[in-house]
Write a structure and sequence with these properties.
The structure is a homodimer of 213-residue chains. Chain A is built from ten helices and two strands; from the N terminus they run ααββαααααααα. The first copy, chain A, has 213 residues and is mainly alpha-helical. The first copy, chain A, has two domains: 3-87, Orthogonal Bundle (Multidrug-efflux Transporter Regulator, Chain: A, Domain 2); 90-212, no CATH class. Chains A, B: Residues 1-70 form the HTH merR-type domain.
């Protein structure tokens, strides 16, 4: 198909298609005459993947490009792609707080990881984010929220196991690799969305109870 | 204290402090002489809150400013702030996919909400994000991931209840309002971080099992 049809079928404007091609995120079409380039079904799928990562998953163009380069590299595995996808979705901010507060938060996270019997490297991108969250809770005197971390951890553990089990059912390696990426990026978006919905429900119930009680 | 000390004690550079003041996110200090402005302890706390929302929580300056304006408005309540914080953290992307696919995803989300007996408005910012995630899963043939949504929903429901219970213990209304914001923004960051850690653990265990098995 021509670029116009590719744009129509995916809803992605022609200038964006050209931009993704220049950035190396979308393979170029096949030039079949001096002024005609042909695109295949695989281009449709790739554009959908780009949109899922950037628009639904909230990744920056740079982060999405990194993830796609990982998917395209010949030796990629589902476990390896999980690491690439994790690094791409994790924002690492500058360190804040006093050294003492930071060390205390480091210890608390290490203990949490030990309590849940998790075998992970401290370089895991989630580790550092979690330390920052703990520092922020301490700095802002929200100790009540700290008590919730074990609940979050329990939920995260059970979801990770379910995700990996779902994953085993996927037949091809390519689909497994893409699934590892989408499970991470879209899984975060799904979980955040469901938290919004559940929070409204709980908040409404409590408010109604207090009004009738 | 002077602006230099405020910068030193918070780790926020002087130009950033001035920027936050111009944006209305930080109240101006008190001018005590033609060339001296005095800042209070409350400015330290506000700067920590700004940094928690933007650096740890990943909010844009505009979104953080909106949340802070909500906190500062006289009539704000914890339930109301939850809505403001939710809207700020929710990215709404353009619609994609065919109408048919969109309607199908809408129905699936409505059924999921019904299954979990959630009383929420369809305008809830999570609702639309979730529809987009479902469309993306369908478009990319990741049906296995769809099966996980009920697990995510179950976890989100139990976490929302725990969050609200933690919240009830907070003595002052001001702290409750700030807690609603931080519970939403930093709670998302904490959950995503813990998913990274748990995923690495599960992925490693499975790989080790397959190597020794």
């Amino acid at each position: 198909m021509r670029i116009g049809e590719l744009a129509r079928r995916t809803g992605v404007p022609v200038p964006s298609i050209k931009y993704y091609t220049r950035e190396g995120m979308l393979p170029p079409g096949e030039r079949i005459s001096p002024n005609q380039v042909q695109y295949a079904e695989s281009h449709i799928r790739r554009l959908k993947l780009i949109r899922a990562l950037t628009e639904v998953g909230g990744l920056s163009i740079a982060a999405a490009a990194e993830v796609l380069a990982g998917i395209d590299s010949p030796g990629s595995t589902p476990h390896g792609m999980l690491g690439t996808a994790q690094a791409a979705v994790s924002k690492v901010a500058a360190e804040r707080g006093t050294d003492e507060m930071w060390e205390c938060a480091e210890r608390e996270v290490a203990e949490l990881v030990r309590r849940h019997d998790w075998a992970v490297r401290p370089e895991n991108p989630g580790w550092r984010t979690l330390v920052q969250v703990v520092v922020a809770y301490h700095e802002l005197d929200q100790g009540e929220l700290l008590g919730l971390l074990d609940r979050y951890a329990q939920a995260a553990g059970s979801l990770a196991a379910a995700e990996l089990a779902a994953f085993d059912g996927v037949p091809s390696l390519d689909a497994q690799i893409e699934g590892a990426v989408l499970g991470t990026v879209l899984g975060d978006a799904a979980m955040a969305a469901l938290r919004r919905i559940a929070q409204e429900d709980v908040s409404r119930r409590v408010r109604e109870r207090s009004q009738t009680g």
